[in-house]
Each structure stands twice: as structure tokens, then as C-alpha cells.
Amino acid sequence: xxxxxxxxxxxxxxxxxxxxxxxxxxxxxxxxxxxxxxxxxxxxxxxxxxxxxxxxxxxxxxxxxxxxxxxxxxxxxxxxxxxxxxxxxxxxxxxxxxxxxxxxxxxxxxxxxxxxxxxxxxxxxxxxxxxxxxxxxxxxxxxxxxxxxxxxxxxxxxxxxxxxxxxxxxxxxxxxxxxxxxxxxxxxxxxxxxxxxxxxxxxxxxxxxxxxxxxxxxxxxxxxxxxxxxxxxxxxxxxxxxxxxxxxxxxxxxxxxxxxxxxxxxxxxxxxxxxxxxxxxxxxxxxxxxxxxxxxxxxxxxxxxxxxxxxxxxxxxxxx
Length: 320
Prior knowledge:
Layout: H1 2-23, E1 27-29, E2 32-34, H2 36-43, H3 48-70, H4 79-92, H5 95-103, E3 110-112, H6 114-137, H7 142-158, E4 165-166, E5 173-174, H8 178-209, H9 216-225, H10 234-237, H11 246-273, H12 279-303, H13 305-314
Antiparallel strand pairs: 1-2, 1-3, 4-5
């Protein structure tokens, strides 16, 4: 009962700030305060891609409130609310750049207003609450830590230039790096997979690549963290008999496609926000290397499907 009341409270608070966000000081352009309605109207006259990005966090915020009230059980999964709150919070903090790029004005003249900052930071803080609920169901063992270290190390090695095929100049390459990230997500589930892929591997990869910490939230935390979405499909993919089934193969394919779409979306938004690339150009840029990488990932994951199930049986631990 307590968990449900907290969800209702958070959903109500977020919805209230969403309404205020439509009419309060959302952005500041040229020292002039703009409401979200003003920003939508102005941005709709410019690039439609940036207009949709400006609109997206509001749609996701509404979705967060709806899901908060829709989950009536105290034992309802906190995963969807964690994903929604974290991703939406990050998007709010980039709204000033969406607006500036949408109108083609100098980004240095556009700043987030009080409400966009409150919504952004507030949703990220709320995501930490759901992280705490998730950790109540998922405790790390020495086995988990060692296994994550091994798979993350393997991903870093496979991300070295000698193991990748450069496709585009600024970082885009076809590599096998996502294979160990998918395997650890299958082994450990979404939460431990997200920590392994987004937090640990993402941070190390960000430091190694040297593009600056500003790229970490979208390209690395959410981008590589998206590979953990495979872990949500774990009960539908893995089985205790280590048998390859049509159902398991289909859900494995679906899981990989969903994860790759998540990474592509995060990197596409990063290209728009940080590198000031147009939506279509940024998307095409990501697809030039993500498409072939996804095909490689699917082939190798299918080849490793039975071995990872055998490994899961031999070193079986309860995964939420």
C-alpha cells in the first residue's frame, strides 16, 4: 500500500509541474522568459525534428504520470517508471538546445528556465527512488561483480581500433563491443545489466574516447545502457533446459532490435544537441554503423544463445 501511495504522489507531483511547465518560465531567450506553449509555437515554425524533440519530454512526462496511476499493485515492477523518469529528466535539461537549433539561433542565447530545470532535475532524482526499489530486489554478489568486470573488460577490448571497422570519421565504427554487453544483460537482468553497460562500461568508454563528459548522459549512459533492455526479455529468452526454441529466438531478436533502437535514439539526440546536426543527418550517421553492427550482434548472439543458457544453468543465481 505504501509503495502504491508513493507512486501516486510522485505521479501527481510530476503532472502538476507538467501543467505549470506549459504556462510558467520554461525557457529564456535573449533575456525574455518563454512558456512551453510559446516555445512550441515558435519552434514549430522552424525545423520539425527539433520541435518534436522539444515536445517529447512533455509526452513522456504525461506517460510517467499515467503509468504511475496505472500500476495498482504494491509489487508492480519499478522498471518502466525508472526508465521513463531518467530518460525524460535528461531530455528536459537539453530543451534549450532543442529550441535554439530548431529556430537556428545561437544556443548561447537560450537557457533553461526554472521549470525545465525543476522538471529535469526532479525526474532524475525521482529515478533514484525507483533505483532504490529495484536494488531491494537485486543485490550484488561477488559472483556478479567478477562476471560484470570480465564482460565489461571484454567489451572494452573489442572496442579497440584493431577490432573495429571505421565507417565514419567521428567515432562511428562497426564493432563486436555490444556482444558482451548483451550477454551480461541476459545473464544478470536489466538492473545489473544497466549498471554494467551504462554506468561502468559507459563511463570507462567515455573516458577512453575523449569526446568530453558532456557526451556521457546520452551517448554513453543511455546509449550503452540501452543494451540492458535485453535483460527485460530474459524470462522469455532463457529456459532451464538450455533448449533453442522458436519463441526464444524470436524474443532474442526482438530484444536486440529494441536495444539497438534505444542506443540509436540516444546517439541521434546527442548528435542533434551536442554536435548541432539536423535530425535526419544525425539519424543517418548513426545508422551507417549501427545497422551493420546490429546484424553482427544478431548473428553472434544466435551462435552464443545455447552456450549462454548452459552457463546460466551452471552458475545459476536468481535474477529479478
